[in-house]
């Protein structure tokens, strides 16, 4: 097992570099949301296929995250991080040049592949560079706060770029971010490794990605063709088969993608389960809220992006408070309250109507839900990394990210189907009113999922005296 190296002098630059990688990765999940109507019109996307602009990214991202972390262990964290940044920058430029849906979806998938390397490495580099204690606690807390606020900032940035320039700039904006991260990392990040694997579990990564992709595709096809359609049933069957083979393979391969025994740790399995629900709430919430602002309230992309400013502020506030509140009241209390706030906010979003206004209908749910997201996401990251063994830093950090992204992908596909079904079943004479009813149903189901997560947090997150000191308690001085 490799112990953390002596903390380098340029810790500020190192932390800025890895946080910049993380904010770019998280931002790219949501930055396209406000641009979706413009993308659909310009590239002639169908309503059912439009969600693939988001899911092509999150599926490859979530499915290959664990392989990305192991890849860094194999070739060195510094080299892998720079390779991931280079690929991300190139495919972002190509995505901005897309002329049809297939080209954009392919570029988004390639972004997801690069993100699967960047996201786990950004946290792993912190864990192997900073010695356990106050320095690492503060660094991980800042990293988690960046992750919590990145999605909200992405929606705002997407609105500004789409309105003032073009939707293509939501792809091209990554190029300068990549260059800045490379410059900062080149002078501050040294080559580090945890336990070095002799080979990568590529079959395991392919199997888990196939299972997730098939599951999402089944949910999307069910919305378009019906739950009993051959395509939907075939996709669900393939998902079940590849998932079963994945578990069988992981139990037998010498160096598995996921050492399944890691889930014997209560903080690990609880944090990853709740992380999937947090991802579902965040991704689905941003997606449908962006559509509501433009389709129902008639906002331009810039106005829609600006409407997310309170959400940005609330997320940052919740993230800043999370560490201090966790140190005082414990992770269980903070996560439960945060998830309850998110559930209430999503439930209020589900009360949209034809006469909805920003101040009367959208603002209050934004504030309540965003503070809840910030509180729960940072506390949950702290729970999932508490007491992690050094040689499993890449695995644990990859699992937290993978759970959140996969939960978001699966929920988005399912909720898009729920919204489309509710719209089709509506008896409203006004097509816009039927559309609103579909969005309301999606928000209501999202609220129910988040409420389930709150119950899980209350029942299963260990008491404050049963876990080590929360890693984020020093996040904000």
Automatic annotation (TrEMBL):
- Residue ranges of coiled coil: none
The UniProt entry lists membrane topology as: Multi-pass membrane protein
State a single Pfam family of this protein.
Answer: MFS_1
Q: Name one GO molecular function term.
A: transmembrane transporter activity
The UniProt record lists the Major facilitator superfamily (MFS) profile domain at 14-465
Q: Which UniProt keywords apply?
A: Cell membrane, Membrane, Transmembrane, Transmembrane helix, Transport
Chief localization: membrane
> Does the entry feature the keyword Transferase, yes or no?
no
Subcellular compartments:
Cell membrane
User: Where are the bilayer-spanning segments?
Assistant: 12-36, 48-68, 80-98, 110-130, 142-161, 167-188, 200-220, 226-249, 269-290, 302-321, 333-352, 358-379, 442-461
A GO cellular component annotation here is:
plasma membrane
Tell me the InterPro entries matching this sequence.
Answer: MFS, MFS_dom, MFS_trans_sf
Q: What is this protein called?
A: MFS transporter
Q: Which organism is it from?
A: Kineosporia babensis
